Every structure is written in C-alpha cells, then in structure tokens.
Amino acid sequence: MKYEQASHLQYSVLKLTGEVDLHNSPQVRKQLLAILNAGHSVLVDFAALSYIDSSGIATLVEAFNLAKNKALSLTIIEATGAPLQVLELTNLNKVFPMLASLDDVKE
Amino acid sequence: MTNSVQHIIEAKNLVSHYGDRQVLNNVDFKVAKGEIRVIMGGSGSGKSTLLNHLLALLKPTSGDIVVDGVDVVNADRKTLLALRKKTGVAFQSGALFSSMTVGENIKLPLVRHTKLDANTIDIMTRLKLELMNLAGFEHLMPSELSGGMLKRAGLARAVIMDPKLLFFDEPSAGLDPVTAVELDELILKLRDAMNMTIVVVTHELESAFKIADKITVLFDGSVAVTGTVEEIKNSPDERIQNLINRRPRNEVVNAEQYIERLTTGKN
Questions:
Q1: How many Cβ pairs within 8 Å bridge chains A and B?
Q2: Which in A87, B39, B108, B123 has the greatest CB count within 10 A?
Q3: Per-residue confidence (pLDDT) for residue B151, from 0 to 100
Q4: Do B123 and A58 touch (CB under 8 A)?
Q5: Is B246 part of any domain?
C-alpha cells in the first residue's frame, strides 16, 4: 500500500494505492485523523485501491464520525471493484458520500 | 502454463486412520483461490476428518497437504500459527468462550494477534456483528443467545481477521430456513467482497447447490466425485443420486463378513 496526500479545491486528498490491510491501516488512520484534526475536509481517493480489509473500513468509519463531529466531510472518490463491494457488504455505501471522480467534487 | 489455476489447498493421496479403522482412503482434494467448495457425504463419510486434516488438527497416516504454500503435515508450530492467522474456522456449535461476552469473543483474535487501535478493533467487531444480524448483542453472554445466533457469532469471530481461507462446518444445520438462506447469501457475499476461498462441509443439499462452485462428495472415506453443481446433479453414480434424492442406502450384504463383524467385532 502507498498513499499520497494532495489538495483539491478546499479539500485534502488522500489517494490510496494497492491494498489496505491489518498491517498498514494504522498508517491510513494516522493520516486521516491528522488531516481532520487540522480542520480539513477529506477526499479519500480509491481509484488505485485494489483491496481494503475491515480494519481499513473501520478506519474510514472512525474518520467519518470525527469529520461529522467537527462539521467537516469525508468523501470517497472512485470506488470500484472489490473495495466497492466491501462498502456495499457493510452498507457503508449508503452512509459515506461517494463520487465517481475528483471532477465531480464541488467547491 | 500462464493459465494454470492457483490452488490454495492441495491434498494428495491422503490416508487417515482412527486406530485400526481407515477413515480416509487416498483422498485427493484441490481447491482454487476464490472458490467456494462444498464437501458433502453421509455421516461417517470422512467429511469432518478431511476438514481436521486441512486444519492440521490431525496428522495423516500418509499423503501430502499443502495449504497456502505451507506443507501442513511437516510444518513447525510457528509456521502453522502464522497460517492459522490467515485462516478462519467456524464450527457447528459456534465454540465461543462462555466466560466472555459475545463482543469479547469476536474481537479476541484481533486483540491477540494485531496491534490495531482499540477504536479500530471495536468498530471492526461491530461491523461483523452488523453483517451477521447481531447488532446490539455485543454485551450479551453466549449463554443468552439462541443456537442460530451462536452460529452467526462463531462466523463473525471466524472472519474478524478477514481470512483468505474460511472453513465452515455445517453452517445451516439447526437453523430456521430463512436464517439458513441468509447465511448462504452471506457466504457468497464474503467471497465476492473479501476474495475469500471458502470450504463448507454440509448436509444441506439446497444450500450446497446454491453456494458451491464445485462439490466434493465423499463416500466411506473416498472421493466419489468432485464436480460442478450440474455435474453432481447429472452424475450417473447411484450413491450420489441416492444422496441427492434422499434415498436410503441399499447396500449389498456380504453375509459372511456381516456375521464375522457381528460375532467378532472385527472389520
């Protein structure tokens, strides 16, 4: 798993590449919580994500809840394939805002 | 050989005895990655014995077993432990610790084997409880759950580490029909979303036909056939047709051997 942080409009973008699993989800958690604690809304870019396990999903849930409490947002971008199926399996596709592409993000 | 199927389980020429009694007879059993394989057969056909060998809980008399690249017959304890962390097992009874709450039972593997944050572990536990329709039962004791709930709690614990390989012994036995169907759906979803390979031992034909990519039928410790649902349904083997159509076995009686067994107890 690799992650890259960038900006898009007023958002921080966390782009995840490869597989998020038990071993590396704590890194993702640290990044996400840091972004939100710094007061930025976050776009989590799934475009290059091939797999996310439930520790990764749990991390997104925790971060989403923190964003809500801080009146910020957490949006999933371009979820397809297995990661999308995991979101559907857990019904979180009905909870997290999801957009098909970064181009769909509005200011 | 770029198109060769990758097998996550490969057992060859497996022979197993309980005492003098041979329970598996030259069993070959291969499962491809991402496959749902159902093992069927009557009581005493060797289903559970095969499962226990694949889990390295029993040592075979002879034969090879390789699971996810590990030679489980000869592997040392440490290697087996690492393999078990990637393997989920759900037994018939649920097998939860009676002194712990349902939530504590389910999260136990994460607490023991990972360094994840407690928040992450708690949310993972609740995600699995939700998945198994057990939301809100986290703080109950196992003794306060029904049989079907225990089974689902056992499954929640089996998949808490997102195993690559899940073994499931008699998932729908003793469940009401609606819960049994939901469990079948869940098995299919787990495979699709988590890319799991799932080996299910079951008596339930309807369930087997619904979830299986392939079915292995065991009779008297030997593999009668391994095939797709269609192949099993169309099998010319009378024993398989008897199993599918729930006809009682009509075995040929060898009078001499029968009397020998009855009078001497020798097989």
A1: 58
A2: B39
A3: 84
A4: yes
A5: yes
